[in-house]
Each structure stands twice: as structure tokens, then as C-alpha cells.
Design a protein that fits this description.
About 25% of the residues lie in helices and about 20% in strands. The protein is α+β, with helices and mostly antiparallel strands. It has a single domain, classed as Fe-S cluster assembly (FSCA) (GMP Synthetase, Chain A, domain 3, 2-Layer Sandwich), CATH 3.30.300.130. Strands 1-2-3 form a three-stranded mixed sheet, covered by helices on one side. The longest helix is centred in the middle third of the chain and has 13 residues. It starts with a helix and ends with a helix.
Length: about 110
């Protein structure tokens, strides 16, 4: 079996922003998901994630990072998960999916 970015993004949908009650993928907080095959291993991967927060002082930031590592780390083929928080480009509501907009009543 091969690990794909889509598998990782599905796991990240389990991470719910505690203030907005919407998952971080639909909120548009996930910028990069890089699935890296382990050298010499046929079915083992490291995952590097770049994500942002809705604001630089988001009090839920540490929780979102921790849960991202936890849920992605639960994937059978994953060895290590690195989550980097970036603020460039800044997050805007334009990054949200239509589902997230509907949940938050943003039209």
C-alpha cells in the first residue's frame, strides 16, 4: 500500500478548531502536506505539514498542532510527523471550503 496526501488530509479532518467547530482542512489552515518515503523502506513514510492559524495569537494553536501530529501519526504507514506553523501567506476566509462557509453561516 502507498500513502497519499489524500489519506493524510482525511486524518487532518479529525482535528476540529475548538472555537469555530470546523475541521482544519475545511477551514483552509493546511497549506502543505508532503508525504516522504523513508529511504530503504518500501512502505514507510514521514509526513511534513505546513499549516497556519486563523490569527497569529490563536489560543488553540498548540492544541491544533498536537492533534494534527496525533491523528496523522495514527496512520499505519507513518513513522514521523512534523508540523510547521507558518504565517505567510496569512490565512483569509477565502481559503475555506463551501462546507465550512455553510457551517459558519458565511455567504
Amino acid at each position: 500500500m502507498r500513502l497519499h496526501e489524500d489519506h493524510v488530509r482525511e486524518q487532518l479532518k479529525k482535528v476540529i478548531d475548538p472555537e469555530l467547530f470546523v475541521n482544519i482542512v475545511d477551514l483552509g489552515l493546511i497549506y502543505v502536506v508532503d508525504v516522504v518515503p523513508k529511504e530503504g523502506e518500501t512502505e514507510r513514510y514521514d509526513v511534513n505539514i505546513e499549516m497556519t492559524l486563523t490569527s497569529p495569537m490563536c489560543p488553540a494553536g498548540p492544541q491544533l498542532v498536537s492533534q494534527s501530529k496525533q491523528f496523522v501519526g495514527e496512520l499505519e504507514l507513518v513513522d514521523e510527523v512534523d508540523v510547521k506553523v507558518v504565517m505567510d501567506p496569512p490565512w483569509t476566509q477565502d481559503r475555506m471550503t463551501d462546507d465550512a462557509r455553510d457551517q459558519l453561516g458565511i455567504f
